[in-house]
Amino acid sequence: MTKEQNLERRESNRSQQPSNGAFREFIGSDWGERPPGPERAAVADYLPARHAKLSERFPGVRLVLPAGGYKVRNNDCDYRFRAHSAFAHMTGLGGELEPDAVLVLDPVEGGHEATLYFHPRASRSSEEFYADSRYGEFWVGARPSLAEMAALTGLRCDSIDRLDDALAKDLGQGHVGLAVVPQTDAGVEAKAEELRRRAGLAEGAAQADAELERALSEIRLVKDEWEIGQMREAVDATREGFDAIIASLSRATGHRRGERVVEGAFGAKAREEGNGTGYDTIAASGNHANTLHWIDNDGPVAPGDLILVDAGVELDSLYTADITRTLPVSGAFTDDQAAVYQAVLDAADRAFEKAQEPGCRFVDVHNAAMEVIAERLESWGLLPGTAAQSLAPGGGYHRRWMPHGTSHHLGIDVHDCAQARREMYVEAELEPGMVFTIEPGLYFREDDLKVPERLRGIGVRIEDDIVVTADGAERISEGIPRTIAGVEEWMAAIAGR
Ligand code: GLY
Ligand code: MN
Ligand code: MN
């Protein structure tokens, strides 16, 4: 059963759509002119270079990048659609556009030719126009025509109905191979599998698909100018979200689930300014900050707490920021909170200095932060030996209080480029155009008997977004206050509005 039939069936017990010819003519007539189609998107100019990076790795191989489809949430309700990240990167189409579309890079003389296959808008005289809840204009609005999509993306476009023929063409002849991004669209994958079996290409198919997936991750390690612009916009929108969080704190302290008030304040801004949040917001007050992935956000916010908020706005293009700020709910840090906060800030600053050094590798950024964390823990008498011993192989004691990594690449995915090989990611030297986080933390759980009582229950993380430049690195989240004085002034300014 096809997906479309499936969708039809799940509504059939409730639908009473007339389908006689007279009705169809009646509903399809007397509509005004359509507005002009979309203009060429700015990202369109960057797509050929992105395609070329992929093309050079796969000579003679037909490359298939599905957008993916809807995922059922329950019964006949789906989750909001989000395109597969590689598809979004290679087409510039993010947001809610084009479930079930497929980008094909077809091997031609000297490289590849890109074609975007999708379901174009049907005419108003079609039954689809009014009766199809999946594609119909009455249901989901006027979708683009082939010409409109071509104008928007600068890509050659064709109907999804012609995809199967395009995938099959010359397969196995003249050494034309086929690779498809795995686990994205089960229907396309099954079709590719069948075609490869028939063409005698089944052996090595899984490896070809895995290589394609890895390549798509690796070519995103260095962002182009347009992508860097998107990252800056995402960070700017996130700053607005944090302003809204601070403004929400007085209401949060009076609510039994104050963390939800904070989450909601950020989420409203993220939806207003972008596609939404790039990942589930962490709003963790008091001891909840010591649970690294605290997303329940159902606790109270007490006036004496620190609240750790890890949140990022994802734009319509799907590029997301990833920012953490740890805020004193009362507007001022206590001495103990400030001591922990300053240690984390110093670790972040040391890591950022390291990132600006020529020849710095990704892993060096983490190691620089760990040096500060271990030194500070030693000075507080928490380590069983010295900081040097803890940092040496076979040590690692400081990791009791900072168990996560300091950095990850950031872009369309919050943990971007996750399939990249180790030598291109953690062990690689930083290159201009790379975007990553610096996010050290210290987490003193309230039941941690190795920690002095005065520090128990304090959890701090400070997370900033970094772009590597030709002569160093830039903290693009510099505009979101992060020093002790800066945070207190920021909070006072918003409280005084
Ligand atoms: N918010 C997820 C992370 O910081 O990695
Ligand atoms: Mn992060
Ligand atoms: Mn984060």
Describe the secondary-structure layout.
Elements: H1 3-9, H2 21-28, H3 47-55, E1 61-66, E2 72-74, E3 77-78, H4 85-91, E4 102-108, E5 111-118, H5 128-131, H6 137-140, H7 146-153, E6 156-159, H8 163-168, E7 177-180, H9 186-198, H10 205-218, H11 225-253, H12 258-273, E8 276-277, E9 282-285, E10 306-311, E11 313-314, E12 323-328, H13 335-355, H14 362-379, H15 387-391, E13 435-438, E14 441-443, E15 459-461, E16 464-469, E17 472-475, H16 484-495
Parallel strand pairs: 1-7, 5-6
Antiparallel strand pairs: 1-4, 2-3, 4-5, 8-11, 9-10, 10-12, 13-16, 14-15, 16-17
The structure holds glycine and manganese (II) ion (MN) (2 copies).
Describe the structure.
With 497 residues, this protein is of the alpha+beta class. It folds into two domains: 18-218, 3-Layer(aba) Sandwich (Creatine Amidinohydrolase, Chain A, domain 1); 225-495, Alpha-Beta Complex (Creatine Amidinohydrolase). Helices cover 36% and strands 15% of the residues. The protein is built from 16 helices and 17 strands. A five-stranded mixed sheet has the order 6-5-4-1-7, sandwiched between helices. Strand 16 (464-469) and strand 17 form a beta hairpin. Residues 310, 322, 324, 463 line the site of one manganese (II) ion (MN).
The CATH topology of the largest domain is Creatine Amidinohydrolase
Largest sheet: 5 strands, mixed
Shape: globular
Cα-to-Cα separation, first versus last residue: 59 Å
Low-confidence stretches: 1-6
Considering DSSP H and I runs of 4 or more, what fraction of the residues is helical?
Answer: 25-40%
On the 0 to 100 scale, the average pLDDT is: 95
The overall strand count is 17
Radius of gyration: 26 Å
CATH homologous superfamily designation of the largest domain: Creatinase/methionine aminopeptidase superfamily
Strand content: 5-15%
Helix count equals 16
Number of structural domains: 2
Named once each, the bound ligands are:
glycine, manganese (II) ion
Look at the helices and sheets and give the structural class.
alpha+beta
- CATH class value of the largest domain: Alpha Beta
In spatial order, strands of the major sheet run: 6-5-4-1-7
